[in-house]
Amino acid sequence: MSRELPETSSYGRIAILTSAVVGTVLALGSVWLTVFLLGGAGGSFYETLFRVGPTIQGGGVGADWTAGNTIPALDFLIALIHAADVILGVFILVLVFLHWAAFRRLASRMRQPGESESQRSDAVATDGGREATDGGHTNDADTGSGDVTDADPQAADDEGGENR
Amino acid sequence: MTNLDHGKFTRVTTTFHALLGLDVFVLFFTGYGIMFNDELWWLLELMGGNQGVTVIHRIAGVGLVALIGFWVTLMVITPTGRSNFREIIPTPGDIQAFIQDIQFVLGRADERHPNARQFAGYKADEIPLLSYVGKGVIFIFSIELTLLSISGLLIWSKTALAGFFQTKTAAMAFVVFHGLLGVIMLMGIMFHIFEHGFHPAFYPLEIKAFIPRSMIPEDHENANADSTGIENLSLSPSWGWVTSLMGFFVVIGIVSVLLGSIFDEGYPVPRDLAIGGGPTNLLLMIGINIGILVLFVGLVLSLYGNVLRSRWERQMQREREDRTTATDGGQHHGDD
After folding, report:
1. CA–CA gap between residue A23 and residue B27 (Å, rounded)
2. pLDDT of B159-208, one tens digit each?
3. Residue A117 and residue A142: Cα distance in Å, rounded?
4. Model ipTM?
5. Contact residues on chain B for A1, CB-CB shorter than 8 A
6. B269 to chain A: nearest residue by CA?
7. Cβ of residue B65 closer than 8 Å to a chain A Cβ
8. How far is B27 from B32, CA to CA, in rounded Å?
9. Residue closest to B133 by CA, chosen among B188, B213, B51
10. How far apart are alpha carbons B171 and B178 in whole angstroms?
11. Which of A69, A70, A121, B307 is most buried, most CB within 10 Å of its CB?
């Protein structure tokens, strides 16, 4: 059996370096824009905001709070994101249950813990089905499918008799 | 056969995935430590209190902007990257895959659709680069990360926001928007952890997200097999109870952060100071903490994936050295 490393195309070194530079500049530029331009000398100084104007023209005490709480665009934005949270949350829950159930069905097709190859073959054959084995390309039943043994190329060779 | 399925991604992609995952986990732990501070007070204290947690969150946020800038540039300027845009376009097969997943669960279909299949096995040539869930994850996460970065940068400078709207309360609305937006991703990541950590063929981790394709041997001799060959894999003894427990935790975590996002909102800003938490919200507190536990499991699995990649690299290196040594009298396979 041939078992070979694939020919793959990846990203060039220059492209990676260029992208890394762009990413770094973007990140630092964003911080500069936010902290120094908007929040610093070029932006509003905190002390100049929200001075209480206890007159009708000035809005009176608490006017800022009322005005800030009744901006229709922001109110709509929050309502929209609440709705998106709920709709997508329910959909994500559906996906969780769907995968959970699919995983259980797939697990039932696998060799159960402690089940030997011959037991599996007999059980399938009595139903009139085909044999589950494929000529010795088996996994180690004791280590579990997720064990690092499965990620061992040498082990794969030993078990399956593959010639790399 | 083994559960070492055919790989899909380049080394740059797997490295990017690991870095993005690490960064997003830090953002979640800090960001939701702030938003759900009634329930996650211990996490807030652990990360340096109000001051420390915002500093960590902002540093990780800058890292996120750098990672996004890096990835978008790489996708645009390289032919391999540009070809990826074709791979993420939704197709009718993706809708069919979702429907067939429902049929598969109900016993009305024998196999999962190729666009849904995580374990490819002998059918590796049939499956696309991304499953229908994978495409959804890329679309939703791209929109989410962009909006989260922009809103995050805006609320960094609250004085500018307040100045623009001429009210401090408006700045609070942006903070709330930022937090509520992240809830979608928070729930999505919990599902992502379950999907890729608890598939019976890959449990406890789908390693192709960590080991690049160039390092995973391929075998095409069984391409005409009737099935994926999953029946030849052994189920891990602990899979049943661990997956049941994690499935339960994921559901509790998602429901709790969803409910928490509805109750713990901060806009419109209430007239009275409302102290959250307390005995009446004990269940919510437990649920949100379970959600954080799920994220922590995800973080551990992500780190474990990199440990496996490192071990795998060393083993392949040893194999190459052994073959080189055997060249004099042995057989050279030359598969590198």
Report:
1. 18
2. 778 777 777 788 888 999 999 999 999 999 999 999 999 999 999 999 88
3. 12
4. 0.91
5. 219, 221
6. A69
7. yes
8. 8
9. B188
10. 11
11. A69
